[in-house]
Design a protein that fits this description.
This protein is an alpha/beta fold. 39% of the residues lie in helices and 17% in strands. The model has no long low-confidence stretch (mean pLDDT 96). The chain binds zinc ion (2 copies).
């Protein structure tokens, strides 16, 4: 059995405080059958440092992008294009819209999101999209900018079934994080029950959002197994079946990631 953590911020774990390093975090995940990792970029400034940190690990892939809550103030599209051309970069993002935490700069977020989709299309790399409280604008911009030409994933999904279906109709996958395990997540659990296995990915979004039973701890890629087990139970399949299909989905979507 092999799982993939399809979305983690490997460069943002507090290694110093816990006196561990990236190698031991990856080894702990490997011991729980997590074989591959996608380390997701959130700013262009920190991207080179992330690439240096993951360089020794051939089972770690990278994305390049600017998180909607990290506008710089607006993404430098030329720099994004240059950095994202790196062979190790298998996806563009995370990008998207977050009106929950940052409703005051919607137009900057939208401009940045459009630039990310354009670069993704130029480079032929799929998108990692963060979307919160911005369903209509997210789907509208995806359609207007032709996001279906490269596809991608709505990551850490917490929105409606209707939004998931609209994204899937554009060829997108839906990634489920540890939020699904939370006690107040019954609406999301109902959505997951309706999503086809063929479109699902699992992720930690570590160091944030540790799943039950690790709440209160810093999240790490090893815990994607707890997310996967929870989703498997919701879908009435075994953990190994869920691992097989989500791992296949990962490599189908991120076709530049090689096993
Ligand atoms: Zn996100
Ligand atoms: Zn993230």
């Amino acid at each position: 059995m092999m799982l993939v953590d399809s979305h983690c911020h490997l460069d943002r774990l507090s290694y110093g405080d816990k006196q561990v390093d990236m190698a031991s975090v990856l080894a702990a995940a490997h011991a729980r059958d997590i074989g591959y990792f996608l380390s997701v970029s959130v700013t262009l400034q920190q991207f080179p440092e992330m690439m240096t940190a993951i360089a020794p690990f051939t089972n770690v892939f990278a994305s390049c992008g600017v998180h909607p809550l990290n506008q710089e103030p607006v993404v430098d599209a030329a720099l994004l294009r240059e950095l994202a051309s790196n062979n190790r970069v298998v996806a563009i993002g995370e990008t998207g819209l977050d009106y929950y935490y940052s409703p005051e700069n919607k137009s900057t977020q939208q401009a940045s999101f459009r630039e990310h989709i354009r670069v993704a299309r130029e480079l032929g790399k799929p998108l990692i999209i963060h979307t919160r409280d911005a369903q209509v604008d997210t789907l509208r911009i995806m359609a207007e900018e032709g996001a279906e030409q490269v596809g991608g994933v709505l990551h850490c999904f917490t929105e409606s079934l209707e939004m998931a279906q609209a994204a899937m109709a554009m060829g997108f996958y839906i990634s489920i994080s540890g939020i699904v395990t939370f006690r107040n997540a019954s609406a999301l659990q109902a959505v997951v029950r309706h999503l086809p296995l063929e479109r699902l990915l699992v992720e930690t979004d570590s160091p944030y959002l540790a799943p039950i039973p690790h709440r209160g701890k810093e999240n790490e890629p090893a815990f994607v197994r707890d997310v996967a087990q929870f989703v498997a139970d919701l879908k009435h399949v075994s953990l190994s079946e869920l691992a097989d299909i989500t791992t296949r989905n990962f490599f189908d979507l991120f076709s530049l990631a090689k096993r």
